[in-house]
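W.,

You were right to be curious about this one. When I first looked at the sequence I had no strong expectations either way, so I just let the prediction run and decided to look at it fresh. Below is the sequence, 112 residues in total, followed by the output.
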Amino acid sequence: MYFPETLSGVALISITVLGLVLLGSIPLVLFYRNKLVAPTVSLVFLFSWAFFNSYHHFEEARATGATPISLSTDSLFGMFWFVPLAIVLLLGAVEYVVRSRFDRSPLGAFLN
C-alpha cells in the first residue's frame, strides 16, 4: 500500500496528479489550437462511462452488504490515467488526419 508519508507514496500521488492535469488539459489545448472535437467528446464519454459503471458497482455492493474493494472503472482516471489519455490522443490524431485529408469540417464555420 502507498501512503503519502513514504517517498513512494508521494511519487505515486505526484505522478497521478500530473497525469490528471495532462488528461484534462490536452483535449482543451487540442480544441483551442486545432479545433479538434473528438478528444474532448471522447474524454467526456469515458468519464461518464466510468462514473456510471462505478456507481452501479458501489450500489450493487451496498445492496448486498459487501464492501466494494475491487478495482473499478473509475481507476482509469486515477492510477491508470495514461489509458484514457492514449485513447484521447489516438482519436485526436484520427480526427486531425481526416480533417487535413478532406479539407475542412462542416462545422468549421461554426467553430471559428
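Here's what jumped out at me. The radius of gyration is 18 Å. And, maybe more interesting for your project: The chain has four helices and no strands.

Coffee later to discuss?

I.
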